[in-house]
Amino acid sequence: MSTPTEDANVTYTPSPEGAVKTLLILGASGDLTGRLLLPGLARLITRGRADGLQLVGAGSDSWSTQDWQGRLAESFAAAQEKADDAGRAALERICEDSTYQPVDVTVEGELAKLLDTLTGPVAIYFALPPAISQKACELLEPDDVPAGTRLVMEKPFGSGEESARRLNKTLKALVPEDHIHRVDHFLGKATVFNILGLRFANRMLEPVWSNQHIEKVEIFFDEKLTVEGRSRYYDKAGALRDMIQSHLLQIMALMAINGPATIHERDLRDHVGSTLRAASIGPDFARCTRRARYTAGSIGDRSVPDYVDEDGIDAENMTETLAEVEVAINNERWAGVPFILRSGKAVGRKRKEAVVTFKPVNHLPTGFTGADAPTRLRIGFGPDTLQLEMDVNGPGNIFSLDRAVLSAELNASDLHPYGEVLDGVLSGDPLLSVRDDIAEDCWRIVEPVLEAWANNEVPMDEYEAGSSGPSAWVTSQEDVPLES
Ligand code: NDP
Asked: Which domains does the chain show, CATH number per domain?
């Protein structure tokens, strides 16, 4: 039996089978592998965090090992340039020893046969279309997977609560829950710990971190990117499934959890789980949800067509490119506080942050001029930053209130988000992965909205690409101007 490690920075109980020896990437020729996974892995390798790892690429393409090694060289190039001698040598070794195995994972027995040739424990990264990953797992038997195998599943995890539950059942028939890594690359380790450190290591914050003092919490992820050639996936997903169902609900939970006893995976994920169990949207969807689609416009010097005129988009799908929902967390701490989650593509101003708006003071002494603007705390994501906006006496007229902003940069990780994901997988730490009940619950929260939207209970608004969203959507995040 394994015992918890004594290293205080380790948040998990090490696997009794020991560290992962082989990383098998299924979908070796795919976009995710080339653009995100391999560059993330490369940084990990140059930092000596993947020593002795065997890397195997596999997929339905009839590639040779040379083709695969060519892809590795390309994806490793940026890390290679920055690495020291030891890092470069480690990259070269992994590249030279790496092989490619053609496999169609939907053919019974093919993946099992491949696994039989690998040195365990193996981490199987399913960088495949979701339906293919699911089929591949359904075809595996527990005896097909070497002891200590870790399954790494990409988003979307299922297509609804019921399908996530079925997928969980399939996976847990193969390996224990703490060997399943449901990837949420959005939640880097630094971001998670930055939020927790800020919230729980500052006496002045926790006492006011509740419905007694907080008016609302907003979480934004607006980006300038459009569908960028991923229409096959995005047109079936949309902003609500793509961003809010997964990433933004996770951030919301971290902003809202009660203080855990430790920052180990069990305590932390228990708290995230119980917070999300208290969360819901509705029932008045026309009031608490909004959706919109971009029309032609320009972002910087780039012209963008109507969303429905982008390659591979079917207007009949009624896919939203901007979504906003108001989530209620029905517990003692948060009852009555709206958590507003918003994410959109082709928005003129890139914005990735959580904004906590405090209630006004009970009484502003008579005699001050200017507005008592609410105190706001902003936590920026990637780069992680902190800003506290407060009222102070203005220059010149000391009776007039003015705004002061205290700013700080928070700790950044030297790994790419996917480097952090792989670090957790290779070291056997599930802290950053989404637990089974949490994956199901995130669908439970958004499914009523998806249904209401499918029934057209909420209109599809429009916004010009490059604008800040539909003009009728008043966003409260901008600075409130002082009245003279
Ligand atoms: P791609 O379509 O680019 O790649 C899919 C890969 O799977 C290809 O290498 C394909 O090979 C292989 N494949 C398909 N069918 C089989 C099969 N039967 N047996 C073996 N290999 C097969 O997809 P992405 O890389 O974009 O996405 C992969 C996963 O990652 C998806 O779940 C996606 O949602 C998720 N994801 C992707 C992100 C991205 O930015 N790309 C971001 C976040 C998540 P072939 O070409 O021969 O068919």
From this structure: 5-182 (3.40.50.720), 189-413+434-478 (3.30.360.10)
- Taking the C-alpha atoms of residue 58 and residue 386, their distance in angstroms, rounded to an integer, is 42
pLDDT of residue 175: 97
Question: Ligand 1, residues 26, 31, 68, 167: which to mutate, most atoms within 8 A of Cβ?
Answer: 31
Residue 34 CB less than 6 A away from ligand 1: no
**Residue 464's closest CA among 299, 240, 317, 231?**
299
128 Cβ closer than 6 Å to some ligand 1 atom:
yes
pLDDT score of 316: 95
Q: Say how far apart CA 481 and CA 484 lie, in whole Å.
A: 9
Quick check: helix, strand or coil at residue 93? helix
Contact indicator for 339, 219 with CB cutoff of 8 Å = yes
* Cα 231 from Cα 311, distance rounded (Å): 7
**Is the beta carbon of 67 within 6 A of some atom in ligand 1?**
no
pTM attached to this predicted model: 0.93
Query: Residue 172 above 50 pLDDT?
Result: yes
Rounded distance between C-alpha atoms, residue 291 and residue 269, angstroms: 30
Which residues are tagged catalytic? 247
Tell me how far the alpha carbon of residue 201 lies from the centroid of ligand 1, in angstroms.
41
Nearest residue to 420 via CA among 385, 365, 389, 382: 382
Give the per-residue pLDDT at 479: 44
Q: Is 76 exposed, middle or buried (0-12, 13-18, 19+ CB in 10 A)?
A: buried
